[in-house]
Design goal:
The protein is α/β, with parallel strands linked by helices and 369 residues long. Strand 8, helix 13 and strand 9 form a beta-alpha-beta unit. Helix 3 packs across helix 14 and helix 4 packs across helix 14. The chain is globular. It starts with 16 loop residues before the first helix and ends with a helix.
């Protein structure tokens, strides 16, 4: 693994760590990588397809308002154009025209989200550091995908040590979690054509109904039962009933659970915030994956940079450029005050421009799948 350069305390120093990292780019391993053999998948009786492609939700994109008419004036001379403008005496200051904002999902983003993926796809949101918006990104990405596709999306809280996705994403219509599903896994697998109905007994639903939720459990002893075989069995059920499975992962990159998920996904989403410690953790994890033979997953990953405060901070541009080189794409989503309390996440409560940004980020995630 590459030895990380020491952090620089001088923001103006041209030899700062992130300036050095920008030159490293992709392909750090410097040679052919051997892809490790993933844990064996269990074989289960085939079930009928999920159903016809979901319906399409329609959005109206408001047309931009016209500016008020401007009074005709005598064109200024060439000399006047070179002089700084001064306010005219006796006239009130003119109001500044508002800048246009993207407040609705673009038709292109919706089209990208609605396209036929061919088969069920698994997307894992990863970063070994806590507090980097993994859960928030999982919930809002699932909400954007489920809203655009009119369902067929599930978010699974696979954090082995008490995740909060079930509390923040869904309506608590019951208290059942992954633990209860694992206890009844044999019966659910044997449900045949009634698998969706049996699985639904263990799922919660998002507040707006756009996606389903498989909540994590608060019992830390459960991690011993989520062995690789059990994780693969749960994934098999979810992919037989949903078109997109979004997984909120834990923080232990050496966990058999974490490694099994990574070996089974179609895309990794690296979540981070514009802070040095969070970005360093994400960068180290990508090195770890490349050295473990997952260079292709790293190359095709998507990085999500989330703004935890209204001020994006001085590192945003450097981090965006760096992770755009390390991964397939880098999407930036803005700060939203409704997310600050850390309570239940409601997609409809976001600012219109924030929702539009999450639709675009979710489209970036599914591009190329």
């Amino acid at each position: 693994m590459n030895t990380p350069e020491p952090w620089s305390n001088d923001r103006n120093n041209d030899s700062s760590r992130w300036q050095k990292l920008l030159g490293r780019g992709r392909g750090r391993a410097g040679g052919a990588q051997q892809t490790p053999t993933p844990p064996p998948r269990e074989s289960y009786p085939p079930s009928p397809p999920v159903g016809p492609p979901p319906g399409q939700a329609h959005y109206s994109v408001p047309t931009a308002g016209r500016r008020p008419p401007i009074a005709t004036q005598t064109p200024p001379s060439a000399a006047q154009l070179t002089q700084p403008m001064r306010p005219q005496q006796g006239l009130p200051p003119q109001p500044r025209q508002p800048q246009p904002q993207h407040t609705e999902p673009s038709p292109v983003a919706l089209q990208r989200l609605r396209r036929d993926l061919g088969r069920s796809r698994v997307i894992a949101f990863i970063n070994p550091k806590g507090g980097v918006h993994k859960t928030t990104a999982t919930v809002l990405s699932a909400a954007a995908m489920g809203t655009a596709r009119s369902g067929g999306v599930i978010a699974w809280d696979d954090n082995e040590l008490r995740g909060t996705l079930g509390l923040r994403a869904g309506s608590a219509r019951h208290g059942r979690t992954i633990r209860h599903l694992v206890e009844h896994l044999d019966q659910v697998e044997a449900a045949g054509v009634h698998l969706p109905e049996h699985l639904d007994e263990f799922l919660r639903h998002s507040s707006d109904g756009s996606f389903d939720v498989l909540a994590g459990d608060e019992d830390p002893k459960l991690q011993r039962r989520l062995d690789p075989t059990t994780v693969l069995r749960v994934l098999d059920i979810l992919t037989r009933t949903h078109n997109i499975v979004c997984i909120d992962t834990g923080n232990n990159v050496e966990s058999p659970n974490w490694r099994t998920v990574v070996s089974s996904v179609d895309r990794l989403v690296v979540t981070t915030v514009p802070r040095e410690d969070a970005a360093f953790s994400a960068d180290w994890m990508l090195d770890h994956l490349e050295e473990g033979g997952y260079g292709n997953l790293v190359k095709n990953a998507v990085t999500l940079l989330s703004m935890p405060t209204p001020n994006p901070g001085p590192l945003l541009h450097d981090l965006q450029r760096h992770f755009s080189q390390r991964t397939r794409a880098c999407a930036v989503v803005p700060y939203d005050p409704s997310l600050e309390p850390g309570a239940k996440i409601e997609f409809s409560a976001l600012r219109p421009e924030t929702r539009a940004a999450w639709f675009e980020a979710a489209a970036t995630i599914v591009d190329g799948l």
